[in-house]
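ingest -> validate -> predict -> emit
validate: passed (alphabet ok, no gaps, 194 aa)
predict: started
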Amino acid sequence: MANLVFPDAVLVKNYINGDESALASLIERHQSKIYGFIYSKVNDSDLSNDIFQDTFIKVIKTLKSNAYNEEGKFLSWVMRIAHNLIVDYYRKLNKMPLYRETEEYSIFNYMSDNAPTIESKMITEQVESDLARLLNELPEDQKEVLIMRMYQDLSFKEIAELTGVSINTALGRMRYAVINLRKLIEKNQIILTN
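emit:
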């Protein structure tokens, strides 16, 4: 008999009904997309593996408890779980995923003709620190959209899917986040240049 390719919804149903191989098929089908998404946000393979495993532990628990009800939207549901775990990770660290201390960033600094002075490094760190502090003053929904757009480089369509809102709502939140951030920058008299 030919090897049939079942839709996600069928594999989910089969897994819930006791077919363990159905979950393996789902993981195999979506592994590179989910892992790639996680890695693009955390830039660390060990951490990405941990978050990937935690994502599927949550998936298994939800499916086993019959709490899954996203018929036909399995991948976006799993991506939302992964996204939430990434957000939780950064919250625990109490830091924003600013592109500091990554290999690319460090190498880029030292390869340039004008190696950064101690003073310019301090200014850059101060600007990043001020900006992270201001982001934390934004309402949670605005902060989330701004981080996803600016630091994680997600499209508004992806943001809408991951946060469970319409594209217009995501755009509106981004607009208000930028307006509020400008007000906070003016109020705190922060100069965002180095």
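Confidence is low (pLDDT under 50) at residues 99-114.
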